[in-house]
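Input sequence (551 aa), recorded before submission:
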Amino acid sequence: MTKTAARLLVDCLVEQGATRAFTVPGESFLPVLDALSDCEAIQTVTCRQEGGVTFMACADGAMTGQPGIAFVTRGPGATNASIGVHVAMQDSQPMILFIGDVDRAMRDREGFQEVDFPAFFAPIAKWAARIDDASRIPEYIARAWSTAISGRPGPVVLALPEDMLHEDGIAAPVRPAVVKPAQAPCPDVMATMMQMIGDAAAPLAIVGGAGWNERTQHYFTEFAERIGIPVATAFRRQDSIPPSSAVYAGNLGYGPNPKLVQRVKEADLLLVVGARLGEATTDGYTLVTPDHPDQVLIHVHPDPSELGRVYRTDLPVCADMAEFAESAALWDDGDLIDFDCGAQAKQEWLEWHTPRTEPQYDLDLAMAMATCRQLLPADAIICNGAGNFAGWWHRYWPYAGYPSQLAPTAGAMGYGVPAAVAAALRHPDRCVVAAAGDGDFMMNAQELATAAQYGLDLLVILFDNSTYGTIRMHQEREYPGREASTHLANPDFARMAESYGGWGRRVATNTEFDAALEEAMGRKGIRLIHCITDIEQLSAGGATVSGLRSN
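Predicted structure, token format:
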């Protein structure tokens, strides 16, 4: 049977297993929107800005392990969407962005909204291309799907010329669904790794990242607990191991536990699984240096191009994360490895993770997190963008479920609300929280309209100190007492939530916060708690404006 190019494209996505697509509609891909409108297998979610579109696709890909699907128009739509492509690349999340493009006959004349998309996106995507021949749509879709999920997952960008989408009579058959290759580790390599770990005096594992999933979490936790090795999570990968694990040592990134930092420095062997050991995890490549003298590095990653790329690697292991974790958990060569440092590291994390009981501010955010731990489900999905506000969640929230942390390692602001929309759609049975700061929230607050349109249940907890807090912190460190360009004049965010048909409360004390959260948990739909906080309370690690100025 023949069909239109747009119908063929949608049928190819259905065959690959796509179930949801996020979009801001554009005239450049009207045939695709029409084909999606009567496709029961794929839900089309209409969003309010293309950055929100790609953030939702990023989050969806992170939750499913399959490419998040996004459709946007050319020019302004595509450039707005580029932030999500960058996040998907740095966060190793599978995504496919489709862009409606100018007609083929109009190319290279700088026509209306024309951009050379393969050139524009090439530096921040795994693959960027244009489909000029409608008969090759099945080939391009299958390759895009495979590229997005293979090795180190990441984004693919495909431009769709408008006139190509209107072509009819296309007879090309869809290609079968792509199955992600699951490469098992070599038994000889596993034996070498176990011997190296057994010879260590103070080993430490750093986990989370490319290809991590629930199966990986289960088996790696079993392996780590069996040998007693402390396990730290890479930046914003805190759901990679259950916090209940007897060997969980806490998280690396911004504002980590000083005792964990010291433990990493003193480790004579690092077992890094899934993580790239990026700038945030390694404190600017200083906590673990590329040459890491006096430390043995075993690096396990699904993409061979990541092994040895930045770090001198003593034992590179290229394998599927779940296959590696299961092999490690089931490994038994008769030699008993039993470290006691895992239990010690867990105790250090518990001390760091426990909020204070006496307030230091009218609305003490550490104590507010203690209330969250009492009233929110332990497996709540916490979604946040960038800013110092996130530090209180990273330090005090347990991230007990999987997935339970959707947060950009690329440090993009505005990710939390779109990610919460994607999470509420994918997991309607779970509590979803958009954790936000005032600056971060306003980057994509408009996606509350998307949540309202689709009747979603999500809770927004917004910390408002009327400033870009992270930048203010650096500013006070570099130019004490000289605030410049960081002050914010904010609206009443609680009333904003109400304008979207939701519920909102403005709170300025812990007593008010506790009452508001309890009421919010008894409601459905959009709920927003607007927390007025003191600028002096700059970070979860204890940084204050007065303290930075005095130094």
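Checked by second reader. The CA atoms of residues 381 and 432 lie 5 Å apart.
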